Amino acid sequence: MTVKKKRLTILGSTGSIGVSALDVVAQHPSRFEVVALGAGSNAEVLARQIEQFHPRRVCLQSEEAAKKLKGLLPRNGVEILCGAEGMKELARTKEADSVVSAIVGAAGMEPTVAAIEAGKQICLANKETLVTAGQFVTAKVKEHGVELLPVDSEHSAIFQALQGNDIAKVRRLILTASGGPFRTWTKAQIEKATPEQALKHPNWSMGRKITIDSAGLMNKGLEVIEARWLFGLGPEKIDVYIHPQSIVHSMVEYEDSSVMAQLSVPDMKLPIAYAIAYPERVPSGLAFLTVDKMRELTFESVDHEKFPALGLAFEALRQSGSMPTVLNAANEVAVDAFLAGKIGFYGIPDVCAKVMGRHKAETLRSLAHVREADAWARECAEGLVGGKN
């Protein structure tokens, strides 16, 4: 049977998720076609991707990077866009069936919304889209009748464990976290952690921002907020446990006391392949999970004193409205400040808590309102990391 090729736009193609997605695509040339690629500023990597996958149009986030790309591809014929408006236009590319949203941070939200409004299937790796504007975005998904498929390994695991089951029968969702590089450290040791130490994740190879988030469990907190909007369950039905082996990617507990889990070796290619090929399954190129690797699977409760960021995320979700938007924006500023050596590791949740404490949650009624809350939180956080009141 001949399978119709799925035509893909990949936003964030030069990041870790984008590179893995293209690796999956390369394994199945008869199933997938790349029609558009969006990247940040890495013109050299994007040029190599263009040579291999032949997209019709591409976008870089800055005009300078776009000019550099033109110099690298003088006779290629690919349409080159740039900037925030260019990325939204790329997301609306008419020929694409599905958009892989993998731009890091809040910058990925508006291109994702543009793709939803254009009726594209969304393979969502950019968790900030639902963290910053979950209610607004899910309403858009419903309005335009599009599929929203999770790419995060934890949410993909839940999505797979829900197949053929009634969400109303779910007692709780159990997200797993590796514990990052500081799982066995004391609070005093974590307080003195350097960016180099925080970037040494034991199980996953990810970008710098998400790796820092993972080290403090902020990443897991953002995933809790994302899960609330993906699956329609409140924070009282979502739990987090440390699972150092990163083999069980998440679990779903049902009212009949059964627990369904999805297991695999820790690699993002599997959830990416599941999302872009859905509802089919295709080989992801991963090694198979052997019994030897499953002989010792352990789980631990989260130490909230060591990892206060997770509690901040649950609190932001309980207050809802604009509070998750504010948390996400403050966190992005604080992570940049930590990586620049301006604040210590615990300065990240400290800045987030202070910004949240100065904000009163409001219902988000438009993208403009989301942008306003985001901008306010960034200004407030930048004042804090810069030593201003």
**Gap between N and C termini:** 66 Å
With helices defined by DSSP (H or I, 4 residues minimum), what is the helix count?
16
Cα shape:
globular
Number of strands: 11
Biggest sheet record = 7 strands, parallel
Write down the Rg.
20 Å
Sheet with most strands: strand arrangement: 4-3-2-1-5-6-7
| Beta-strand percent range | 5-15%
Whole-number mean pLDDT: 94
Helical fraction equals 40-55%
Structural class of the secondary structure composition? alpha/beta
Residue stretches low in confidence (pLDDT < 50, at least 5 long) are none
Order of helices and strands: EHEHEHEHEHEHEHEHHHHEEEHHHHH
Keywords, separated by commas or semicolons:
389 residues, globular, alpha/beta, 16 helices, 11 strands, 4-stranded mixed β-sheet
Structure, described:
- There is one protein chain.
- With 389 residues, the chain is an alpha/beta fold.
- It is 46% helix and 15% strand.
- It contains 16 helices and eleven strands.
- It has a seven-stranded parallel β-sheet with strand order 4-3-2-1-5-6-7, sandwiched between helices. A four-stranded mixed β-sheet has the order 9-8-10-11, with helices on one face.
- Strand 10 and strand 11 (259-263) form a beta hairpin.
- The mean pLDDT is 94.
Topology, pairings included?
Elements: E1 6-11, H1 16-27, E2 32-39, H2 43-53, E3 57-60, H3 63-72, E4 79-82, H4 83-91, E5 98-101, H5 109-117, E6 121-124, H6 128-144, E7 148-150, H7 153-162, E8 170-177, H8 187-191, H9 195-198, H10 208-215, H11 218-231, E9 238-242, E10 248-254, E11 259-263, H12 269-277, H13 308-319, H14 323-339, H15 347-357, H16 367-385
Parallel strand pairs: 1-2, 1-5, 2-3, 3-4, 5-6, 6-7, 8-9
Antiparallel strand pairs: 8-10, 10-11
Helix pairs in contact: 2-3, 4-5, 5-6, 6-11, 6-14, 11-13, 13-15, 14-15, 14-16, 15-16
